[in-house]
Amino acid sequence: MITTHIKPAKLLKQQTHQIPGQLLVTDYFFEVPLTHGATDKGEVQLFGRLATKFEKPTVPLQDDGNGGFGNVKPIMCYLEGGPGFGNRDPQDNSITHYLIARGYQVLFLDYRGVGNSSPVTAETLVLRGDVKAQAEYLKHFRADNIVMDLEAVRLSLMDGYPETKRTWSIFGQSFGGFVSLTYLSFFPRSLTEVFLTGGLAPINRRADEVYKKTMVKVTQRNEAYYAKYPEDREAIFHLTSFLRKNAPIALPAGGTLTPERFMTVGIVLGAHGGLDTLHGMVVKMQADIDQVGFLTRPTLASLEQMNSLDNNPLYAVLHEPIYNYAPGVSSNWSAHRVMLNDVRFSWLHNPEQLGGPHKKYEQELYFSGEMIFPFHFDTYPELQKMKEVAEILAKATDWGELYHLPTLEHNTVPVYAASYINDMYVDYDLAKESASRIRGIKTLETNSLHHNAIRARPDQVIPQLFALRDDSID
């Protein structure tokens, strides 16, 4: 359990400006310790943007007798998915306008290591020393340290506020939901309310258990894909055979396209429109081969963008460690080990499955989903430089605790969660189990939305979540 005393983040710089869409945005740079509670381990900078509605009242605001705090709007801190992704600009995030319309200010804080918050790349990581030192550094970039950053920023932003106004709300999407539950575990008194979308983390479940469950959903999405586009069964065999015969194929931004890397673009199957996105790529690749005999630069560039791990390396190196919920737990390339045992993903250990002769197409090649494999660190140029570090992290067992069950079981903070029955990334059964451990949670469960609904269908998700909040108890 986190027992560190958190000090307010040091405010380094702030600047306020108006942007289109009637938004007033303040940019903040903060400084916090790499290790909270220790001042001799170095620091990291955090970048955040606080968006509020731009208002110019006809009549100036009057003194409310409360130091002006009566006019302060509550803060909703949005926690992005990942790990390893920074925030979009407030005006480009659909959630901004929904929340501002509800009367909130919205804080978009980039997690440490991503966006503008001391970003981690292969180049910046080298500054930390040898691979062992780099691995030790990256152990500070999971949810346990992120929530201490959040708490430090809250204390800084609300310095001087009356005690009754020093809590804030949080809204976690995907991995942001994982962070939210860690925050709820260790700092419940700092929270007014918690909203989650596709982010009910599998509390105290090992990576192996998670991937055994999510692999079922990946299989179902593959089946849905081939049911919609049966002609792609043969096309996939042809494409992987072409890639095998012509490997390695250089990609525009570096790295190589191999049959195995191609099979990981199935990550798009978990999103709204994912079946069509994958089919469109198959058509594009097959057209190139049929017409010119090779894959053109635009096609290869499109393939790169379908899973841009080079731009988000923390996503790759920390994706499995986010499930290491306590000391003694390791991931050890969990997805690879679990999926090796399934014949539908036999391409993971049988190269001929991705390039041998196929006269019949009775058994489809199944794409993987949101999984990271060792070969990712051979085919992406940024990840190639981090391969040794990733190996160390995969075997590491000295992780901090992520959830405090007694706090969750006696929770008094209102929690509202959207859980997607067909979610390919966060298993519904494990999410339901987690919900049962959080006292007082209200859940919206639906089989009509996928994991990225907050982006693809915000008009369906956000109003329903707030309906859970606003409904009175019967």
Automatic annotation (TrEMBL):
Q: Name one GO molecular function term.
A: peptidase activity
Listed name of the protein: Proline iminopeptidase
Keyword Hydrolase among UniProt keywords: yes
The record's InterPro entries line, in alphabetical order, gives: AB_hydrolase_1, AB_hydrolase_fold, Peptidase_S33, Serine_prot/Carboxylest_S33
Q: Which GO terms describe its biological process?
A: proteolysis
Higher taxonomy: Eukaryota, Fungi, Dikarya, Ascomycota, Pezizomycotina
Q: What is an example of a Pfam family matching this protein?
A: Abhydrolase_1
Where is each AB hydrolase-1 domain found?
A: 74-222
Q: Which organism is it from?
A: Zalerion maritima
Record's keyword terms, sorted:
Hydrolase
